[in-house]
Amino acid sequence: MAKSIMQDKKECWLCRNANGSIELSPYGLEEHHCISGTANRKISEETGLKMWLCVYHHRLVHSCREAELIVKTSAQMKYEETHSREEFISKFGKSWL
Question: What is the pTM of this model?
Fold first, then answer.
């Protein structure tokens, strides 16, 4: 199980990005693999493209296309800080950027 490259602290990634520097709870969180799909979930795990989300945001990401795209594009941008876009596409089959 790889460590997340998306965040250092156990807190809701979307709450953090919406609320700045307030203290967030590390409890009641669920792990979310940023790039979905049977094969992509495993690759997300191996590459660390996963994040903690509160129950509300985890359900939102799975039901709202806009929220899902925020997570996927953010994950791709993070991956591309140390890898090329071609490597990302080779692993996940497409680009969201």
Answer: 0.89
The closest of 37, 31, 1 to 13, measured between CA atoms, is 31
Which distant-in-sequence residues (6+ apart) come within 8 Å of 75 by Cβ?
6, 34, 35, 44, 49
32 pLDDT exceeds 80? Answer: yes
Q: How confident is the model at residue 1 (pLDDT cuts 50, 70, 90)?
A: low
Q: For residues 32 and 51, is the Cβ–Cβ distance under 8 A?
A: yes
The number of folded domains in the chain is 1
Q: For residue 82, what are the domain limits?
A: 13-92
